């Protein structure tokens, strides 16, 4: 049904629009507003009822989705997996929570938009802009009332009340800071130490065999893990995220940093594989320049000069692990890293 099918007496009354005419004094006259076009809901109550039912349906679906969100959180085990075509295997709880929460939010938004576009008034109304600043008399009265209120509050004379009030207002936000404690247990010293210790063998990540100096060629890059850490271990991911190593062999004459040379073995140096920016694993090595590149944000480290940062957002050099050779000829750690690996954290000293 269109507005042409409705008798004129049933149409909402039109507002008179005054259109200014350009002249020599005002060459850019206000053209006025275009004629208002009525929607079908404005002229047909049955169409308005249909829109009303649509909006109510969307809000009802949102309520059901919220109930589904709560039920999913309570009923679905956190370790259950499901297959969703064509995505593949997903965590059932995460999938259910995301689906129900997304549906609840979408239906609220869609219902509000449909309500505004079909049932709320869409008629444009022009109004003259009024001055924002208050009149001088109003300003003077406000300032007088403020001064009178300040005088009656006695903040200037009642210093005890004033100081204790400021103290209460300053300390109250600490309640919210304390609540942050429930975000999880404090890491303590976990981030400062890794599995590396004196005598731990350097194990090749690819072959799972201990490394000998002869296994590391000049200019090569090898990844290593601590002896005893296996991929099937429950905490493998947490431990390898701190203990992963890059093993590079340089010519001793190419090593510029004295500590790096002292902590190496015949030009073999061991650096943390974890980037000091946001913790990405470093995997790119340029043999000619001895530069290691993080693929995430292009932080670049000079492995011939103490792994110092020469480009990118990383904040500090890669930690070096002091290594040597045991009696059987295998490369071993001579201790743990002397500083935390990876990016900085809030309690890092």
What does this molecule look like?
The chain is 32% helix and 14% strand. The chain is built from eight helices and 13 strands. A hairpin with a 4-residue loop joins β7 and β8 (291-293). The radius of gyration is 36 Å and the shape is elongated.
Derived structural class: alpha+beta
Share of residues in strands: 5-15%
Overall strand count: 13
Unreliable residue stretches: none
Shape: elongated
Mean pLDDT: 87
Radius of gyration: 36 Å
Name the helicity range. 25-40%
The total of helices stands at 8
Helix and strand string, N-terminal first?
HHEEHHHHEEHEHEEEEEEEE
Biggest sheet: strand arrangement: 3-4-5-6-11
The CA-CA distance between the termini, in Å, is: 74 Å
Main sheet specs: 5 strands, antiparallel
Give a summary of the structure in a few sentences:
With 349 residues, this protein is of the alpha+beta class.
Helices and strands in order:
Blueprint: H1 40-43, H2 45-75, E1 81-84, E2 88-91, H3 92-118, H4 136-153, H5 159-171, H6 174-179, E3 202-204, E4 221-226, H7 236-243, E5 245-249, H8 258-262, E6 268-272, E7 284-286, E8 291-293, E9 300-302, E10 308-311, E11 320-321, E12 323-325, E13 331-333
Antiparallel strand pairs: 1-2, 3-4, 4-5, 5-6, 6-11, 7-8, 8-9, 9-10, 12-13
Helix pairs in contact: 2-3
Could you name the key traits of this structure?
alpha+beta, 4-stranded antiparallel beta sheet, 349 residues, 8 helices
């Amino acid at each position: 049904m269109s507005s042409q099918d409705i008798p004129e007496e049933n149409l909402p009354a039109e507002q008179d629009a005054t259109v200014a005419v350009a002249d020599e004094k005002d060459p850019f006259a206000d053209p006025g507003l275009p004629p208002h076009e009525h929607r079908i809901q404005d002229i047909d109550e049955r169409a308005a009822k249909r829109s009303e039912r649509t909006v109510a349906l969307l809000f009802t679906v949102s309520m059901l989705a919220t109930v589904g969100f709560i039920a999913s959180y309570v009923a679905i085990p956190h370790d259950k997996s499901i297959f969703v075509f064509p995505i593949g295997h997903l965590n059932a709880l995460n999938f259910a929570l995301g689906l129900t929460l997304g549906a609840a939010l979408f239906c609220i938004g869609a219902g509000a938009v449909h309500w505004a576009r079909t049932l709320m008034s869409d008629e444009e109304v022009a109004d003259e802009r009024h001055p924002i600043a208050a009149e001088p008399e109003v300003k003077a009265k406000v300032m007088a009332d403020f001064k009178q209120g300040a005088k009656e509050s006695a903040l200037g004379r009642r210093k005890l009340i004033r100081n204790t009030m400021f103290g209460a207002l300053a300390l109250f936000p600490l309640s919210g800071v304390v609540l942050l404690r429930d975000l999880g247990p404090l890491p303590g010293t976990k981030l400062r130490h890794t599995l590396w210790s004196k005598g731990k063998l350097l194990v090749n990540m690819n072959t799972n065999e201990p490394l000998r100096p002869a296994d590391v060629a000049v200019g090569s890059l090898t990844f290593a893990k601590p002896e005893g850490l296996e991929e099937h271990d429950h905490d493998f991911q947490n431990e390898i995220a701190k203990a992963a190593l890059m093993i590079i062999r340089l010519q001793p004459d190419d090593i510029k940093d004295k500590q790096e040379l002292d902590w190496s073995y015949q030009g073999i140096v061991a650096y943390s594989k974890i980037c000091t920016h946001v913790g990405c694993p470093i995997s790119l090595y340029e043999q000619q320049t001895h530069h290691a590149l993080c693929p995430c944000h292009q932080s670049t480290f000079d492995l011939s000069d103490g792994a110092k940062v020469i480009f990118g957002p990383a904040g500090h050099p890669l930690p070096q692990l002091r290594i040597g050779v045991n009696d059987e000829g295998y490369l071993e750690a001579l201790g743990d890293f002397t500083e935390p690996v990876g990016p900085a954290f809030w309690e890092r000293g």
